[in-house]
Amino acid sequence: MTIPTRGPAAPLRVLHARRRPALVLVAHGSRDPGTQAEIRRLTDRLAAARPELDIRVAHLGLNAPLLSEVLDGLSGPAVLVPLLLSRGYHVKVDLPALLAAAPQVSGRVAPPLGPDPLLTQLLHTRLTEAGWGPDGDAVVLAASGSRDPDAAEDTETQAALLAARLGVPVRTGTVTGGRSVAEAVARLTAEGHRRVAVASYFTAPGDFARLAASAGSWVTAAPLGDHPTMADLILTRYRSTSLAGARGAVTPTS
Protein backbone atom coordinates (compact mmCIF):
# COMPACT_ATOMS: atom_id res chain seq x y z
CA MET A 1 0.00 0.00 0.00
CA THR A 2 1.31 3.35 -0.94
CA ILE A 3 1.16 5.93 1.82
CA PRO A 4 0.54 9.40 0.40
CA THR A 5 3.18 11.90 1.33
CA ARG A 6 2.25 15.24 2.80
CA GLY A 7 3.42 18.46 1.30
CA PRO A 8 5.12 21.20 3.28
CA ALA A 9 3.16 22.40 6.28
CA ALA A 10 0.97 25.41 5.67
CA PRO A 11 2.31 28.57 7.31
CA LEU A 12 0.86 29.30 10.72
CA ARG A 13 -1.48 32.27 10.53
CA VAL A 14 -1.57 34.48 13.62
CA LEU A 15 -4.39 36.96 14.03
CA HIS A 16 -3.13 40.22 15.46
CA ALA A 17 -5.28 42.66 17.36
CA ARG A 18 -6.06 45.86 15.50
CA ARG A 19 -3.42 48.47 16.15
CA ARG A 20 -4.43 50.96 18.82
CA PRO A 21 -4.38 54.59 17.70
CA ALA A 22 -1.67 56.76 19.20
CA LEU A 23 -2.94 59.31 21.72
CA VAL A 24 -1.58 62.75 20.87
CA LEU A 25 -2.27 65.19 23.69
CA VAL A 26 -2.28 68.65 22.11
CA ALA A 27 -1.45 71.53 24.45
CA HIS A 28 -1.68 75.22 23.60
CA GLY A 29 1.90 75.98 24.61
CA SER A 30 3.23 78.33 27.26
CA ARG A 31 6.44 80.10 28.26
CA ASP A 32 5.69 79.29 31.89
CA PRO A 33 7.84 76.34 33.08
CA GLY A 34 5.13 75.48 35.59
CA THR A 35 2.73 74.76 32.75
CA GLN A 36 5.14 72.31 31.14
CA ALA A 37 5.84 70.57 34.44
CA GLU A 38 2.11 70.11 35.09
CA ILE A 39 1.53 68.66 31.62
CA ARG A 40 4.43 66.24 32.13
CA ARG A 41 2.87 65.05 35.40
CA LEU A 42 -0.49 64.60 33.68
CA THR A 43 1.14 62.69 30.82
CA ASP A 44 2.93 60.43 33.31
CA ARG A 45 -0.44 59.74 34.95
CA LEU A 46 -1.96 58.81 31.59
CA ALA A 47 0.96 56.53 30.79
CA ALA A 48 0.62 54.78 34.15
CA ALA A 49 -3.10 54.27 33.57
CA ARG A 50 -2.71 53.00 30.00
CA PRO A 51 0.86 51.71 29.55
CA GLU A 52 -0.06 49.95 26.31
CA LEU A 53 -0.81 53.24 24.53
CA ASP A 54 1.60 55.29 22.46
CA ILE A 55 1.08 58.65 24.19
CA ARG A 56 2.74 61.76 22.83
CA VAL A 57 2.55 65.44 23.77
CA ALA A 58 2.43 68.11 21.08
CA HIS A 59 2.06 71.91 21.18
CA LEU A 60 0.35 74.44 18.99
CA GLY A 61 3.10 76.96 19.64
CA LEU A 62 5.81 78.25 22.01
CA ASN A 63 7.07 74.82 23.05
CA ALA A 64 8.64 71.84 21.33
CA PRO A 65 7.65 69.54 19.89
CA LEU A 66 5.08 71.27 17.71
CA LEU A 67 2.07 69.26 16.55
CA SER A 68 3.34 69.26 12.96
CA GLU A 69 6.61 67.70 14.15
CA VAL A 70 4.85 65.01 16.16
CA LEU A 71 2.59 64.12 13.22
CA ASP A 72 5.64 63.89 10.94
CA GLY A 73 6.97 61.17 13.22
CA LEU A 74 3.75 59.14 13.20
CA SER A 75 2.07 56.83 10.73
CA GLY A 76 -1.18 54.92 10.96
CA PRO A 77 -4.08 55.62 13.32
CA ALA A 78 -4.01 58.44 15.87
CA VAL A 79 -6.42 60.43 18.00
CA LEU A 80 -5.62 64.07 18.73
CA VAL A 81 -7.02 65.04 22.14
CA PRO A 82 -6.88 68.83 22.56
CA LEU A 83 -5.94 69.95 26.06
CA LEU A 84 -8.44 72.76 25.51
CA LEU A 85 -11.67 73.50 27.33
CA SER A 86 -13.96 74.73 24.56
CA ARG A 87 -14.55 74.85 20.85
CA GLY A 88 -12.69 77.58 19.01
CA TYR A 89 -10.32 78.26 16.15
CA HIS A 90 -7.70 75.77 17.29
CA VAL A 91 -10.15 72.88 17.58
CA LYS A 92 -12.21 73.73 14.52
CA VAL A 93 -9.49 74.89 12.11
CA ASP A 94 -5.88 74.43 13.26
CA LEU A 95 -5.98 70.80 14.35
CA PRO A 96 -7.92 69.42 11.36
CA ALA A 97 -5.66 71.38 8.98
CA LEU A 98 -2.46 70.05 10.57
CA LEU A 99 -3.87 66.53 10.53
CA ALA A 100 -4.83 66.84 6.87
CA ALA A 101 -1.24 67.89 6.10
CA ALA A 102 0.00 64.54 7.45
CA PRO A 103 -1.52 62.02 4.97
CA GLN A 104 0.40 59.10 6.50
CA VAL A 105 -1.66 59.53 9.69
CA SER A 106 -5.24 58.26 9.67
CA GLY A 107 -6.45 60.40 12.51
CA ARG A 108 -9.36 62.04 14.19
CA VAL A 109 -9.59 65.13 16.37
CA ALA A 110 -11.44 64.55 19.64
CA PRO A 111 -13.82 67.18 20.99
CA PRO A 112 -12.39 69.64 23.54
CA LEU A 113 -12.44 68.63 27.19
CA GLY A 114 -15.23 71.01 28.11
CA PRO A 115 -17.97 71.38 28.94
CA ASP A 116 -18.30 68.10 30.80
CA PRO A 117 -19.70 66.79 34.11
CA LEU A 118 -16.25 65.45 34.98
CA LEU A 119 -14.90 69.00 34.83
CA THR A 120 -17.75 70.08 37.10
CA GLN A 121 -16.59 67.47 39.60
CA LEU A 122 -12.96 68.60 39.34
CA LEU A 123 -13.82 72.30 39.62
CA HIS A 124 -15.77 71.52 42.81
CA THR A 125 -12.79 69.56 44.14
CA ARG A 126 -10.37 72.42 43.46
CA LEU A 127 -12.72 74.92 45.11
CA THR A 128 -13.02 72.73 48.19
CA GLU A 129 -9.24 72.40 48.38
CA ALA A 130 -8.99 76.21 48.30
CA GLY A 131 -11.41 76.66 51.20
CA TRP A 132 -14.85 76.65 49.62
CA GLY A 133 -17.55 75.55 52.05
CA PRO A 134 -21.14 76.16 53.12
CA ASP A 135 -20.39 79.86 53.65
CA GLY A 136 -19.58 80.35 49.96
CA ASP A 137 -22.43 82.02 48.13
CA ALA A 138 -21.21 82.70 44.56
CA VAL A 139 -18.48 81.72 42.10
CA VAL A 140 -16.78 83.29 39.11
CA LEU A 141 -15.66 80.76 36.53
CA ALA A 142 -12.43 82.36 35.28
CA ALA A 143 -11.61 81.39 31.69
CA SER A 144 -9.12 82.55 29.09
CA GLY A 145 -11.76 84.02 26.76
CA SER A 146 -12.30 83.76 23.01
CA ARG A 147 -13.90 85.69 20.17
CA ASP A 148 -15.51 82.47 18.96
CA PRO A 149 -19.19 82.33 20.00
CA ASP A 150 -19.03 78.53 20.32
CA ALA A 151 -16.20 78.86 22.83
CA ALA A 152 -18.18 81.39 24.86
CA GLU A 153 -21.24 79.11 24.76
CA ASP A 154 -19.19 76.17 26.01
CA THR A 155 -17.84 78.20 28.93
CA GLU A 156 -21.34 79.36 29.86
CA THR A 157 -22.54 75.75 29.74
CA GLN A 158 -19.76 74.72 32.11
CA ALA A 159 -20.73 77.58 34.45
CA ALA A 160 -24.32 76.35 34.45
CA LEU A 161 -23.19 72.81 35.27
CA LEU A 162 -21.12 74.11 38.18
CA ALA A 163 -23.99 76.28 39.44
CA ALA A 164 -26.30 73.26 39.46
CA ARG A 165 -23.79 71.27 41.49
CA LEU A 166 -23.00 74.01 44.03
CA GLY A 167 -26.49 75.51 44.28
CA VAL A 168 -25.16 79.08 44.02
CA PRO A 169 -24.83 81.62 41.17
CA VAL A 170 -21.84 81.02 38.89
CA ARG A 171 -20.86 83.76 36.45
CA THR A 172 -18.13 83.67 33.84
CA GLY A 173 -15.21 86.08 33.68
CA THR A 174 -12.37 86.12 31.18
CA VAL A 175 -8.74 87.14 31.18
CA THR A 176 -8.76 88.34 27.56
CA GLY A 177 -11.77 90.19 26.15
CA GLY A 178 -15.35 90.30 27.36
CA ARG A 179 -16.31 90.68 31.01
CA SER A 180 -13.18 90.42 33.13
CA VAL A 181 -12.85 88.26 36.21
CA ALA A 182 -12.64 91.36 38.40
CA GLU A 183 -15.83 92.77 36.84
CA ALA A 184 -17.66 89.50 37.41
CA VAL A 185 -16.55 89.44 41.06
CA ALA A 186 -17.62 93.09 41.50
CA ARG A 187 -21.07 92.47 40.02
CA LEU A 188 -21.74 89.51 42.27
CA THR A 189 -20.55 91.52 45.26
CA ALA A 190 -22.85 94.39 44.31
CA GLU A 191 -25.74 91.93 44.20
CA GLY A 192 -25.12 91.13 47.87
CA HIS A 193 -22.91 88.05 47.68
CA ARG A 194 -20.35 88.32 50.47
CA ARG A 195 -18.09 85.37 49.68
CA VAL A 196 -17.31 85.10 45.98
CA ALA A 197 -14.85 82.40 45.01
CA VAL A 198 -12.90 82.19 41.75
CA ALA A 199 -12.77 78.81 40.01
CA SER A 200 -9.74 78.65 37.70
CA TYR A 201 -10.97 77.15 34.44
CA PHE A 202 -7.48 76.57 33.06
CA THR A 203 -5.76 73.29 32.27
CA ALA A 204 -2.49 74.24 33.97
CA PRO A 205 -0.86 77.07 35.97
CA GLY A 206 0.46 80.06 34.09
CA ASP A 207 -0.03 83.78 33.47
CA PHE A 208 -3.79 83.50 32.92
CA ALA A 209 -4.31 81.60 36.15
CA ARG A 210 -2.26 84.18 38.06
CA LEU A 211 -4.22 87.08 36.56
CA ALA A 212 -7.48 85.40 37.52
CA ALA A 213 -6.25 84.78 41.06
CA SER A 214 -5.28 88.43 41.48
CA ALA A 215 -8.87 89.47 40.69
CA GLY A 216 -10.41 87.37 43.43
CA SER A 217 -11.81 88.80 46.65
CA TRP A 218 -12.01 85.58 48.68
CA VAL A 219 -10.69 82.10 47.77
CA THR A 220 -9.25 81.22 44.39
CA ALA A 221 -9.03 77.60 43.32
CA ALA A 222 -6.02 76.10 41.60
CA PRO A 223 -6.22 75.28 37.88
CA LEU A 224 -7.56 71.88 36.83
CA GLY A 225 -4.06 70.50 36.25
CA ASP A 226 -2.80 67.02 36.96
CA HIS A 227 -5.59 65.03 38.60
CA PRO A 228 -7.12 61.54 38.20
CA THR A 229 -10.37 63.11 37.00
CA MET A 230 -8.55 65.01 34.26
CA ALA A 231 -6.83 61.81 33.14
CA ASP A 232 -10.18 60.00 33.11
CA LEU A 233 -11.68 62.71 30.92
CA ILE A 234 -8.79 62.62 28.44
CA LEU A 235 -9.02 58.84 28.16
CA THR A 236 -12.80 59.08 27.73
CA ARG A 237 -12.32 61.50 24.82
CA TYR A 238 -9.69 59.20 23.33
CA ARG A 239 -11.83 56.09 23.69
CA SER A 240 -15.04 57.58 22.28
CA THR A 241 -13.19 59.13 19.33
CA SER A 242 -11.37 55.86 18.62
CA LEU A 243 -14.67 53.98 18.59
CA ALA A 244 -16.23 56.55 16.29
CA GLY A 245 -13.32 56.09 13.89
CA ALA A 246 -13.68 52.32 13.99
CA ARG A 247 -17.36 52.55 13.05
CA GLY A 248 -16.92 54.81 10.06
CA ALA A 249 -14.56 56.82 7.95
CA VAL A 250 -11.55 58.16 9.77
CA THR A 251 -11.84 61.91 9.36
CA PRO A 252 -11.14 64.98 11.46
CA THR A 253 -13.85 65.85 13.95
CA SER A 254 -14.51 69.36 15.23
- End-to-end Cα distance, whole Å, is 72 Å
Reading the helices and strands in chain order gives EHEHEHEHEHEHEHH
Work out the strand percent: 15-25%
Shape category: elongated
Question: How is the biggest beta sheet arranged?
Answer: 4 strands, parallel
Task: Compute the average pLDDT.
Answer: 90
Helix content: 40-55%
- Strand adjacency order, main sheet: 2-1-3-4
Structural class label = alpha/beta
**In angstroms, what is the radius of gyration?**
23 Å
Q: Counting H and I runs of at least 4 residues, what is the number of helices?
A: 8
Ranges where pLDDT stays below 50 over 5 or more residues in a row are 1-17, 249-254
Which assembly state applies to the chains in this document?
single chain
Give your account of this protein's structure.
By secondary structure, the chain is of the alpha/beta class. Helices cover 41% and strands 15% of the residues. The chain has helices at residues 33-49, 67-72, 89-100, 117-130, 149-166, 181-190, 207-214, 228-247, and strands at 22-27, 55-59, 76-82, 105-109, 138-143, 170-174, 196-200. Helix 3 (89-100) links the parallel strand 3 and strand 4. Helix 4 packs across helix 5 (149-166) and helix 4 packs antiparallel against helix 8 (228-247). 43% of the residues are buried.
Concise overview:
With about 250 residues, the protein is an alpha/beta fold. Helices cover about 40% and strands about 15% of the residues.
